[in-house]
Amino acid sequence: MVDEILALAHRRGVEAEVYSSEVDRTLVEFRSGRHHSQETRLVSGYGLRVIKDGRLGFAASTNQDRPDQLLDAAIAVAEESKDRRAVFEFPPQQDLAPVHIFENRVMLVSPDRMAEWGKDLVSALKARVPGLKLDLSFVRTYREMRIRNSSGMDLGFERAEFELDASGLIVGDGLTWIFEYLNLSDGRPFNIEPLADRLEQKALWAQKKASLPSGEWPVIVMPTALTALLLPVTLGVDGKNREKKTSPLVEREGESVVAETLSIHDNPVRSHGMMSSPVDAEGMTRQKRTLFTRGVFNGFLYDIRTAAACGTETTASADRPWNRLPQPSVSNIEIDPGDRNLDYVLAETKQGLVVDGFIGEGQSNLLAGEVALNASSAFKIEDGAISGRVKDIMIAGNSYEMLSTVDAVGDRQRDLGRWFIPFVRLPSLRIASRE
Amino acid sequence: MKAFLKNVIDGLAVDYADIRAEEVERTGILYRGRDLDEMERSFERGGCLRVFHKGNWVVSTFNVLDDSLVELAEEMAARVGKLPSAPGMVASLGPHDETVPLALTPESDAETIDPRAVPLAEKHALIRHYNDILLAADGISTTLSRYQDVHREVAFLSSEDRYVNQRFVDTGFSCTAVAKDGTDIQTYSDSFGKPLGFAALRNREPVVERIARVALDLLQAEPVEAGTWPVIIDPLLAGVFAHEAFGHLSEADQVAENEQLRELMKLGSRFGVDELTIVDDATMFGERGSYRYDDEGASAERTELIRHGILVERLHNRQTAQQMNEPPTGNARALSYRFPPIVRMSNTYIEPRSRQLDDMLESMERGLYVVGSRGGMTELESFTFAAKYARLVEHGRLTKMVRNVTLSGNVFETMKNIDMIGDDLTMFGGIGGCGKEGQSPLPVGLGAPHISIKGIVIGGR
């Protein structure tokens, strides 16, 4: 199919690039502690970019038997794109960055094995937290990408991803979800105990109700909640938002933007990251980039097209599903661990909040850095210890401002698949509650 | 198509099986400021095959629609047969054979609705025209203007010999204006989307002109003061509330699996004031969440979730209906062939009552009139919604605009705090949709009249 498209494009005098993707996903799900379903999802598709008379066209298809239809559609788009000049050329062959993203052991885990692990985890939790009914979702994904273009590029890679989401509903005085996540992509054997420990801990914390009045409190933001505060930053570093001058980081390279305690990286070559790959979605060689060095902003992320529009070079940060044009995007986000142990930070807090999960991310004016979040999984700290869960707590404000106050960073990164981040403490954050 | 699908699932030794085959065509155009950023066409073909036996599902999705599916179906049947049996069955609906025309009423004409019949140049010209309106406003630094259309044809067959073939269209646009003053960046968006074809997108200039005006006004607005406020919420935000805060809890999949949640969501319980009636209705004409049959071949229904404040029904797929011994409501929906159907809403709204907006305002000494929605999320009974903006209400009069308005709370308490329901039901579509279990954005409709709520937590500064 790809050969045929490139040959057809050549005959019609257009430059072409075919991005092909095959995704084979296996899911095993448990609902309320019971095996529910097994699924396989196999999707393959082709995205075709063409440059015709200096204009860019794009079309995508799953239909392997109609290369002519795909090319016709992409050329029709190029012809209609009168005001979209292609200010770049498709790149020649590139090197593959070394990165560990495929483990045979992951591919060898059968659905039956996942079901056994699920059963074991359910039994372990049943003994520890009576009444807790677990929802589990094992998702194993095999991904194969290939990029070929008329400048001679022909490269690709395979990635094996394996993740477990576990959640449980606690119905007591109100409803509370507890949740956990495990990245199993490195192929190590599934170890139930640490996961069961964390779920048990959260279940115990969630069973008792506490309240915290509106006001300014120290807030420990756990890694699972910190992602919501980092979301505006991931948009802010997007070269597209520099091109359109919609990022608050425009012309702030070299300035201190977040706290000195924070060094933040975009790392697409992290072993077994969900966004790791040897090349980006345009075939450019990946590398780790430091976005903020001790709080100082270093620069934006670009794909080829956005870099050309901004008069700079790509950072190999293109991402796309097969049916969309590439766009710049962060890959795996890392924050360097600090030196603070969670138990000590808890112990030194007289009164405050631990937030384990927010809902509402993505709803506010993210470009400006605004966040308005409901702390859906939050626990009150009283005299150095967790005293119970609190509900209906709102946190609103500017995430850059919040991140500029971080005064403690946890000593260990949590692996959340595409986020490798520790907890942070905001020493004084305004919260709104019903109290 | 029916013969092909029948060949795949015929004779499988399972309690139930179904297969969907789908062809999709899409067009997308995106302007960022003056630049045409994306223009895309895509063609997809694929299917979803499900087998159910002794309480377990085995599901496969694929892009290849050929005879290899016969072998896949047999392999899936063998696999599901080996799983440990569990309680549960799916409700049976019996044989049927229907091809539903694209037009949802006898008067409408399929040819005028099908976006594939409209030249790409016309679609391009329309969204460029709307984008130019935004750019012409003084003070707008950039824009994001998107056009999209989708045509889907879906064939469904179950092992009960129930066959349904349906076509769907979804056409819409959204426009965002970005206003900038130093480092202050304010955005305002609005969208229009209905399954009524390309022609319905024309003559929407007033909607677009307003977007630029409000974005500029937001630069002058101050953040709202955080705290508990009495509010009047507009029909769009009230519709989002009905969908997000309450609607998701009435989807029976979680309730069916969890005894404690079932107790909490017991039919007959009081959930709100007498005036409150919340409905999910997939049979409404011209709304984004409308269909004739769901993705399990069950016919679309109008389902009253809350009637006069009392929980009376909930939304089901075949399995939850059987499990809870309640009638199927035709709410099993899949985003596409890439997913199995799950319990979803269609068009969800609060029924209008008799209050006029002016009466509501007059009775408010100091509060907020909250407008529009930037999105909403719920986690069980906790919800949070970001409004587009609000206006202060002082002594019954609308005064200054405030921004960064986010509402949050407990849905059960909030529904009990609704004290007035307006007479002005408005339904909304747009181009986004609902997200659940990774299936996003599913086209839905939502709406409400204005409603007033006694006290709600507002996150601001």
Describe this structure in words.
The complex is a heterodimer of chains A (435) and B (461). Chain A contains 10 helices and 21 strands. With 435 residues, chain A is an alpha+beta fold. Chain A has 2 domains: 2-198, PmbA/TldD fold, CATH 3.30.2290; 208-435, no CATH class. Chain A has a 6-stranded antiparallel sheet. In chain A, strands 10-9-8-13-20-19 form a 6-stranded mixed sheet, covered by helices on one side. The longest helix of chain A has 18 residues, at 111-128. The termini of chain A are far apart. By secondary structure, chain B is of the alpha+beta class. Chain B folds into 2 domains: 2-220, PmbA/TldD fold (2-Layer Sandwich), CATH 3.30.2290; 223-459, no CATH class. Chain B is 22% helix and 41% strand. Chain B starts with a helix and ends with a strand. Chains A and B meet through strand 2, strand 3, helix 2, strand 6 and strand 15 of A and strand 2, strand 3, helix 4, strand 7 and helix 8 of B.
- How would the global form of chain A be characterised? globular
The overall number of domains of chain B is 2
Number of helices of chain B: 11
Percent of sequence in beta strands of chain A: 35-45%
Biggest β-sheet strands, sense, barrel of chain B: 10 strands, mixed
Q: Which key features would you list for this structure?
A:
heterodimer; A: 435 residues; alpha+beta; PmbA/TldD fold; 2 domains; six-stranded antiparallel beta sheet; six-stranded mixed beta sheet; 10 helices; 21 strands; B: 461 residues; ten-stranded mixed beta sheet; seven-stranded mixed beta sheet; 11 helices; 27 strands; 22% helix; globular
